């Protein structure tokens, strides 16, 4: 571990309340005073103003608005190898049931929600992919790497860096030589790996792919789509790499259309279809791509009076900041209003949101109103949230929500 210091910190009254409530982020405005200058990765030891007692410990990050990433609240803690080993072991234990489902792609550490804020570990077919969202973790890598490999039962680890962390790494001694996509342990013959998800196979580019190589959070919903798809015509809107499309084909869909604005994403969807069904041309032939902006594509399909038995609408995050929330709600309203006419009588609409700033209550209300405005009878079938490897430990951690409606 690179040398770090201990920084005595006191908070404002709202900051203390946030810490005592278990929030893992302490923003710069929550800090009353810091004894010393502090550098990324220093241990912030937080003292109460009134009683001068330690009420928490976290990692200091002077380059981020989230000034302290809380590792422990409620009193003092010794942050060392054993501390991190216990955190990682607890995270692995939570995922144990998932690993018994013919699944080799999963999230081992879900950042704040597993007590390690700003740090994510995904595992693809035995290869660990560590993604850092805070430069505060850079001085701790020497301690963390062998522990992650030990708990995951892996030999290979790839480092992925958020842009702000990669910039910090270039400028700091703690991050010297670290680059996005670097293999820090073991051997990686190819950038692209094949992993399994409930028996289906997918490609993940762990060096250059989005996030860590794949979007794992919708796993349970993709499985559910496979269970609903038998004998159905399916439209997968914002299909990206075809996760829903592959599971729909595996479930016996008579036809699947993957709609996305990105040609490379659709190419990846086709490759994932071939990976699973290349040996069965009859199944692979049921899949087709439609390259179009989702809003324009849905309007075009409606004009042609095309309908589907199962329509999945899973857009990227429409709200990355507080000020974007009204626009995001309007976009959810518009895209789902366009989708409703494409659902055949008796078919199912599956609408999802991955915008953390849009609450589940607001999102579900938007979908309900879109259905009411359509004038079609409908029945709520289910509401789903995060899979087991994406636990929720604080309000902002609850980003994924999905609703299923049968439409008559």
UniProtKB/TrEMBL annotation:
<dbReference type="Pfam" id="PF10672">
    <property type="entry name" value="Methyltrans_SAM"/>
</dbReference>
<protein>
    <submittedName>
        <fullName>23S rRNA (Cytosine1962-C5)-methyltransferase</fullName>
        <ecNumber>2.1.1.191</ecNumber>
    </submittedName>
</protein>
<dbReference type="InterPro" id="IPR041532">
    <property type="entry name" value="RlmI-like_PUA"/>
</dbReference>
<dbReference type="InterPro" id="IPR036974">
    <property type="entry name" value="PUA_sf"/>
</dbReference>
<dbReference type="GO" id="GO:0032259">
    <property type="term" value="P:methylation"/>
</dbReference>
<dbReference type="InterPro" id="IPR019614">
    <property type="entry name" value="SAM-dep_methyl-trfase"/>
</dbReference>
<feature type="domain" description="S-adenosylmethionine-dependent methyltransferase">
    <location>
        <begin position="189"/>
        <end position="358"/>
    </location>
</feature>
<dbReference type="InterPro" id="IPR029063">
    <property type="entry name" value="SAM-dependent_MTases_sf"/>
</dbReference>
<dbReference type="Pfam" id="PF17785">
    <property type="entry name" value="PUA_3"/>
</dbReference>
<feature type="domain" description="RlmI-like PUA">
    <location>
        <begin position="9"/>
        <end position="71"/>
    </location>
</feature>
<dbReference type="InterPro" id="IPR015947">
    <property type="entry name" value="PUA-like_sf"/>
</dbReference>
<dbReference type="GO" id="GO:0008168">
    <property type="term" value="F:methyltransferase activity"/>
</dbReference>
<keyword id="KW-0949">S-adenosyl-L-methionine</keyword>
<keyword id="KW-0489">Methyltransferase</keyword>
<keyword id="KW-0963">Cytoplasm</keyword>
<comment type="similarity">
    <text>Belongs to the methyltransferase superfamily. RlmI family.</text>
</comment>
<keyword id="KW-0808">Transferase</keyword>
